[in-house]
Design goal:
Layout (H helix, E strand, L loop, with lengths): L2 H12 L7 H7 L10 H28 L5 H22 L5 H17 L2 H5 L6 H9 L1
Length: 138
């Protein structure tokens, strides 16, 4: 589970200056599809974005598997903070080639972050059902 993402990260780190090279794109192009690969800032943001993608997925799996029964509030809070950090990384890096793709990804990340608030409503922390209804739908 850890070996694959780590190997891809080390490969991208090693070949960061060659991301726009035709030979690299022929062989590993699916790793950088849709991301900027030209210039120093493009290659750095691509490596950071892909590394963050793997780290976030790994942390989400750890939170869901190991913290589910021990501390639901900690689990929900960590997922919310991971989604918030994902939004900030996306706004900071601007790693996508297409302007439209960049906008769509930003909207997607914001919606995922906003939807990460809803588990608090339905996890049993708030006992008043009318308040849950008002928070969730009004």
């Amino acid at each position: 589970m850890v070996a694959g993402p780590l190997a891809f990260y080390l490969l991208l780190r090693k070949k960061a200056q060659e991301l726009d090279n035709e030979q690299f794109q022929d062989r590993y192009g699916s790793l950088t599809q849709g991301l900027k690969t030209t210039g120093v800032l493009g290659s750095e943001s691509t490596v950071k974005m892909i590394a963050w993608f793997f780290v976030r997925r790994f942390l989400t799996a750890l939170v869901v598997v190991f913290l589910g029964k021990s501390s639901p509030i900690f689990q929900i809070g960590l997922i919310m903070y991971l989604a918030l950090y994902d939004v900030s990384m996306n706004f900071h890096l601007n790693a996508y080639e297409s302007y439209l793709n960049d906008i769509v990804e930003k909207i997607n990340k914001i919606l995922v972050w906003l939807l990460s608030f809803f588990p608090f409503l339905y996890a049993g922390f708030i006992q008043d059902t009318e308040l849950i209804y008002k928070i969730g739908w009004v």
